[in-house]
Amino acid sequence: MANGAIVSLWRYPLKSMQGEELNASHTNDRGLLGDRALALVDAETGKVVSAKNPRKWPAVFDFRAAFTASPEPGSPLPPVAVTLPDGSVISSEDTHFAEVVSAALGRRVMLAAAGSPQPTLEEYWPDMAELAHQETVTDEAMPAGTFFDLASVHVLTTSTINRLRELYPRGRFEVRRFRPNIVVRVTEDVAEFVENKWLGQQMRIGNEVVLDVTDYCPRCVMTTLPQGDLPKDSDILRTAARHNDVHVGVYAEMRRTGTIRRGDAVTLV
Questions:
Q1: Which of 26, 38, 86, 232 gives a 20 to 30 Å CA spacing to 66?
Q2: CA–CA distance, 222 with 85 (Å, rounded to integer)
Q3: Domain segments of the chain: what residues?
Q4: Which residues 6+ apart lie within 8 Å of 149 measured at CB?
């Protein structure tokens, strides 16, 4: 019996920029094909540019990245079109890409297409008692050869979003704040933060894809930042910290690849 269904899919072609909502996506052993395929790298430090440090990179969420065509298995990834804060668009293949984006960010960056053996990023921890650190910036290691924070697939349920809304009604809890890849609507009565019970299980999606649910997904200051019409709101993160140990959704890794489509049945086994 199905536990739910896919209600939305999200891919982020260029790390830490806003991404694209999809009706379907091919997958590979690193999740949705093309997800976090590119990143900006700080030319001074060599660290991956991330909205996790908004004091250094306050404008990253004002950029949006989308592939110019749908990525296909076995083929080179198509170029990425990046929409800048002023509304102009530049291709990742443009020879002036780094120069233009650096000017918009106010700091020199380079475009990278593959993770280094030991990629790192900086994470700012706000002054929030519920967090492991307060009012400091730490260096965080990323999985070797990738631009992921901790794992390749982030799964979130609509029931968790709705529960957070109940806990903090003034907060605008929307999917885009949490940047998941897969959003599931569960079809049965569920416990609070149902994803917590999925650890160690397999998630079967449609007739092809199988994921291993591997860990909780801890959230960070990024969830509090403004995005478009979403306001800055520190209580978004504080609510998750107080009621679910700062976790929102779960991480998963690909066990069997295929195509994921909006509406696909989801079964936990």
A1: 232
A2: 18
A3: 4-268
A4: 52, 121, 140, 142
Which CATH number is correct for 4-268, 3.40.50.720, 2.170.16.10, 1.10.730.10, 2.40.33.20?
Answer: 2.40.33.20
Bridge partners for 115 per DSSP: none
DSSP string across 186-232:
E-S---TTGGGGGTT-EEEETTTEEEEEEEEEE--GGGGS-BTTBPP
What does the pLDDT average to over 92-117? 94
220 pLDDT exceeds 60?
yes
247 contact partners, CB below 8 Å, separation of at least 6: 193, 196, 216, 217, 218, 219, 240
Asked if the model's pLDDT at residue 1 lies above 60, the reply is no
How big is the chain, counted in residues? 269
Q: Which helix (H) or strand (E) holds 243?
A: helix 234-244
Q: Please provide the DSSP assignment of 24-47 as one string.
A: EEEEETTEETTTT-BEEEETTT-P
